[in-house]
Amino acid sequence: MQQRGLVILTPIKPGQVDVLRQLLRSRIDPIWDAQTGQQICRAGMPFDRLHMLHFACIAVLDEDGGDAPMDPCLLFEATIDGAKGDFLDELITLCGPGLDLIYSHCEGYPASGVALPHLVKSYLGGHDVVPSIQYQGHPGRTISEIRGEDGLRLKLLKTLEGIRQQTADLPITRTEILHRLRRAVIAPPEDGETDGDTRWATEKRAEPIKTRWGRILVVLAAAAFGLLVAGVGIWVSAPNAAEYFLCMNQPLGPDTGCRAAFANNGAGTVLVAMSAWPFQWGGWLLSLIAEEGELFWTAAAAVASWLTARGLQYLCETQTKPGNAGTGWLLLQAARWAAVGLRAMALVAIIGFGLTNLGSVQIPNWIAYNLAGAVLTGALVLLVGLPALLFLRYIRTMPSLDSSFGHATAARRAWLSLASDTLWLVMAILTWLLLVAANWVTGYASHPPGMVFMTLVTWGVSGTLSVLFLLALASAAVVLWLLSIGVREQLFDNRSFEDATVLTDVAVDASRFAREGHGVNKVQNHLISVSRIKPGRLRLLRLRFVTFVVNQMCVWWFTRGELGDVRDIHFLRWIIIDRGRRLLFLDTYQGSWSGYLDAFIDSGSVHGLNAIWSHTYQYVRGVPRPVGFPRTECMLLKGARDERPFKAAVRASQKETTVWYSAYPGIGGVNIITNSRIRDDLFRPLDTAETDRLISTIR
Amino acid sequence: MEQVEWSDVQGIVRRGFGWLPQSAFVLLSVADPAKARHWLSRLPLTSGADAGNRDAMTVAVNVAVTFAGLQALGVGGTSPDGFSREFCEGIAPPLHPGDQVSRRSSMLGDVGPNDPHGWRWGGLATGTAPVHILLLVFSASDASSDVDLLTGPEDQTGVAQIERLLGWLPEDKTEHFGFRDGLSQPSITGEGAGSPLHLHQTATGEFLIGYRNERGNLPVSPRLSHDPEFGRNGTYLVLRELEQNVAAFESWLDNAATGHAPRAGMAYREWLAAKMIGRWRNGAPLTRYPDHDQVSDDFGLFDADDGTRSNDFFYHAEDREGFRCPIGSHIRRAWPRDALGSDPERALQQARLHRLLRRGRLFGPLYDRDNRDAPVNAKRRGLYFACMNADIASQFESVQHNWINNPKFSGLADERDPLIGERAGDSCMTVQQSPVNLRLRQLDQFVVTCGGGYFFLPGLRAIQRIAASNG
Ligand code: HEM
Q: Which of A95, B81, B206, B245 is deepest in the core (most CB within 10 A)?
């Protein structure tokens, strides 16, 4: 099951910060019971009855110093199994008194409190900020699975103890031991036995799709890209072949005009000719539109009606005032729904149109003769389209990214969702165009099959080449541009921010992290860090890009309990809040603070850490000027590797975790993985060495 | 390779003064700052260069200070100024109101019987004076009389004695539980023989400030208002008084061994004891010598020229599952070499960041194993555990917290160091073996912490500059 992070940020009423913090400490934070190794939850806030909840944290984020201190806000972080809405319902039903107690100190909380649960739900849901980066140390494992597998280990341990006593010095084979362990697991529970039923363990553990396929997909995509580039290289370096195809294609496709260039075999000329391709291509498309007028206008009409409907929806959304239920509101709402319906109809029309025209192509020919062209075109679409689609999905989450204080107006949300919807449409049309354009042409100009094949190949090649060429040009320009910006930024940073080394001279208030390392935090710890994002739109854009890339890596690559080499993370999130002015870092990890940071510093993930945190600075009490992150080189190197300034910077930006709850405080991240492995191995055929390993890992 | 300025470094960093068997660690408090500074400048301190030629030397003197000590001497401020945070807060910081135990104490396992409220010195017990200066005296014959010579009356020296911790080192370097100690030591790059595999070589900056550490950084150097170079050639020294309950250890072994046949060429109880430490009593590592028969009794392990090599074992290649040297044994926890993680090379690199230069001494008479009721056995005994490191948090504290007292160490489920770990509930240790692991249960509190402190051991010139400053 998908684990989710729910992070709710709400502004605190002026002057209530200390009262609220005191209240959290004395009336909300669960009490640690060392005897049972469990937390005893307070009456108003029975976290332990929320069956979807892994971890919860409540804390006050306020600022020490700085020229323009930001408004203090309250953080509620929950890691849950399943849907957010369901969790909120459960939270409001079971923890109502606690919620009222806490949130009555926050701006905008409905005065009726949980008496009107839907208001509370929309208040909390409306302040949910979506993490820019979300990493899970043990993806897909539900609470009951984690607890159950640990129980399984204990049961096996007990069984082993029994075996050891019975057979004290008698020899016993490992097969026999394995057999007994399996029997113990599948035995139905006897009456009065506390270990319970463990028969579920014989079922195969459900592994999340991304854990199983993520890496394979990434490798395949990389391989496809490599193949494509290699293919293009061959085409370019084998001008005879290219010329042959290009000549054959002369009457049909766009006039590529690079025959001579290929013949001369001068790389420079080839490049010049290639740069003309996109324009020729575009011109050719226009002429096609002129020829195929009817078709074009039908399509254009469908798209236009979609756009109109979407625009209408946007208008309605921006005009609607929340919480107001008059006739005007009702009318707007009705209009909005009408627009949504219209849009759906237009979409159906567009899809229908697309499919009919795709269908008019002679498919058998297409497959038989045009395989190479199809593959190339398909690869192109995938390579350009897939990252773009992912990025769009990410952009879609931006409305909530920026809404941390509820300042993000409904208008802004509506605008962003309009933009992203439109982008989707454009992407879809482009993809469709690429897919069918070649066939479209050949379908209408009934040439011999061989010709069709050539056309498609040329299409694929010239298209790919021009895209790659443009990409190369663009990236060269971008690199130059970034370099110049980089230099300017560096100068600016040096002028504006103190070096992080000064932090090693500053005393920090140790009460902020007094709970680390003992009591409920003996095994698992929590870290909240808030820093400010350096000024500049470009910087923010770059940070967004970096977080996007890192997040994709977390989603597709780091799905097996290790981030780089760091194995101690339960959950980790970075969130851009305050409309891009601050960066919030929330981290649940196993072990000690210092050892955990060491693990980060010494692993490959330190580059990611640098790339993210080098965009931030902070105000620290006792230092007159704002302090930057330890200086990085090229955004990736150095930085956090300078361990003492880095640790001092993290300490300085750390906020107190005031309330903390864990559903399984005694189980470390490494244990979760080991326990799962025990379960996986137990009912699998094993050889001698594997059996030995299995039995020795039960401990 | 960096040249170490041994003439400016205090001798104990370079050598443990093993040829001077008697020792005294004297805890002092400053009564008169001016006089105390003067007294400091007159101390006949032994440098690393002196320690290089051992023959002429019959007494060696080194000195270290606490954060409070720097203030008492009138040279330190209240802000850290580049000193490590742990040093500033001290080994046993006072509790925040409302807390049962401080973060540092719980990290170090100083809870229950180890609680600083019950310490004899350096802790939070009422009536113990704050420690300012630690004088380390090593002597060939009688350390106590050397101390008398060095300290003298309080009104002249400006320092008052709190406690004189007399220690010694047996000739066979065996600690009270009966194991050969002090075998694995990091060798500072540019100093020492250096094993062929570079297993024990460690960058100078891990033990001395002013040099590059294992990450290639120059750590931040501590400063004093009058002396921006104060840290150079200095290091942090951790001292802990660990009382050993040998009787409990022996009787636990007896109980656990009743009715068991000898194993691996040794009595069962001895085999158990070796599994807890990770070495046989004479120091032979289980990873290389799982069977005691392979080790001859007069095993001259580390004295012979090629002997050091038997200490150059690797867990990953030789003993990954812990079937020889259990994963939870003392030496594997205290320095896991290349055992943590899937890549041994990386693991070793990372483990190198957490090495300690150990310089411990015994206190109390040896335990009489032949006559358990001997009066001498009722005396207090133990180890003055002393170690040096350039970064207390990522070396001493990290070893103590992430390895020794970590219930999840290396994927274990819930156990701590069998010898010195904190005790909670039924304390266990798992001995990996085929086909079924053995679990040692109901481990007693064999070792109790009775005192401790974090000190700074400055370079010699830095000490002269303290004396020269006028407060
Ligand atoms: C009374 C308490 C202690 C006793 C009896 C004791 C005993 C021993 C023994 C017998 C050895 C094996 C010899 C050797 O390798 O040098 C050893 C190794 C070691 N001990 Fe302890 N020890 C004690 C406390 C500590 C403490 C508090 C620490 C650190 C926090 C520590 C760290 C080490 C280290 C780093 C090694 C070297 C491991 C290796 O690489 O082989 N010991 N100890």
A: B206
Q: Do A697 and B411 touch (CB under 8 A)?
A: yes
Domain identity same for B414 and B456:
no
Q: Which residues of A touch B436 (CB under 8 A)?
A: 160, 163-164, 172, 177, 695
Domain span including residue B61: 6-240+452-468
Report the relative pairing of strands B201-202 and B187-188 from DSSP bridges: parallel
Residue B434 belongs to some domain of the structure: yes
- Give yes or no: residues B291 and B423 share one domain: yes
Which B positions 52-81 lie with beta carbon below 8 A of chain A? 78-81
Q: Do B397 and A594 touch (CB under 8 A)?
A: yes
Q: B185 CA distance to ligand 1 centroid (A)?
A: 10
pTM of the predicted structure, to 2 decimals: 0.79
Asked if B215 lies within 8 A of A692 by C-beta distance, the reply is no
**Same domain assignment for residues B116 and B254:** no
Answer yes or no: is the C-beta of B334 below 6 A from any ligand 1 atom. Answer: yes
DSSP assignment of A217-247, as one string?
Answer: HHHHHHHHHHHHHHHHHHHHH-HHHHHHHHH
Interface of A with B in 573-632 (CB under 8 A): 590-592, 594-595, 598-599, 601-602, 622
pLDDT at B291 over 60: yes
Contact predicate B365/B379, CB 8 Å: yes
Interface test with A, best of B110, B206, B338, B394 (most A CBs within 10 A): B394
pLDDT digits (tens, 9 = 90+) for A196-233: 778 888 888 888 888 888 888 888 888 777 677 656 65
Do B313 and B234 lie in one domain? The reply is: no
Is this prediction's ipTM beyond 0.90?
Answer: no
Minimal CA–CA distance to A519: which of A660, A377, A640?
A660
Do residues B349 and B211 both lie within one domain? Answer: no
Largest CA distance in chain A: 93
CA distance B231 to B235: 8
pLDDT digits (tens, 9 = 90+) for B18-45: 899 999 999 999 999 999 999 999 999 9
Residue B330 domain-assigned? yes
Task: Establish if B413 belongs to a structural domain.
Answer: yes
Considering the domain architecture, whether residues B342 and B328 belong to the same structural domain is answered as yes
Question: Could you tell me if residue B379 is inside a domain?
Answer: no
